[in-house]
Write a structure and sequence with these properties.
alpha+beta; eleven-stranded mixed beta sheet; Integral membrane protein
Amino acid sequence: MADTTVRIDGNALRLPGGVTVRFIRTLRLPETGTHPLPPGLGEFPVRRVADYGDRVPEAWRARGGVMLPVYLREAMWLSFAGTSEPAALQVGVGKVCAVSGRPWSDRPARGPQNYVVLPRQPWLDGINSGTGTVRQFVAVPLGLGATVEGQVTGEEVWGGVQLQSFPLNDRELARWREEERRRAERTRGMVPAGGYGAAVPGGFAAAMPMAAPPATGAPPAPSAPGSVPAPPAYGAAPAPAAGAAPSAPPRAPAAMGLGVGGSMRQEVFQDDRPLTDWAERPAGRVFVHLVTPPEWRRITGEAPPPSPVDRAAYTRAGLPWFDYYDQDAEDLAPTDTLQAVKPAGDWLGDDHEPWQEPDPGQVRQLKDAPGRQVEDGDW
């Protein structure tokens, strides 16, 4: 039987089939206008729910998975750097597909496409809400209706983030590996070794903005090696955590989910493979619970990350923003469902954080330069 274990490597989630996912802290964008890609400001720490079974709600233990701390209205994006083999990755926000806006499904689908194609999709900053744009993932509490889940389904039951990966089927995976072997033989000695996401001169990993330091005096979160057991079916009876230290009875933390913020220039790429190339069953899945910083400290005993970086100060300092364009890929059209999702400010009030537009020289181009638009006329 294939291994379906999801593992934690530092703060990265490694799903079976070679998929790597990291949750990246970033600057929250204004909710008006369309903006370049904000920088990465370090990884969110990730911990196993099973390691704190006596301090989390029963529902969390039933769902299993991992948790990470996030501030109210804090933004995040998902990095897929390091993914080693092709995969169709489903990303759910409150069990609503972030790509199609459809309910969570146990199979990849088309019409509309309900997954991102790895490794071609290097990251995902938000829901697929526009032509060549996404709306930024922003943390909001459940109960207001501000989450994507609440706006699409009319209920807020799940919250969090859900990930599920599908590898190529056995025939296509063998074919892909053989093609990669032949390509490696042709290019041996010319390209540094490494899977997708490895740093190569001028490549994605080399240009990724991950260098912004945490606030002075903030203790680094320790890494948490180990595996994330495959979660039981949602609603199944939870198993107690082995060796858990006695603690106060678990209480219900403030439930968090993902709403949306500002719009940015980012494509969600259309799959150019036949749907039958992908396995029919997922290789692995994981439920990611979102925790407020006070609850994170109570549950784990660790200090949460420092509060988000001031975006105006970042821009005034001349630090970079980014544009990414892949001339060989086709953008996936948004669905009406996700186009209709409203930003968090409609529920939480206006955003009073100051905003300073980056100078053109601060916006760095990643991968291909987009071609200039050719204007048409009367003819």
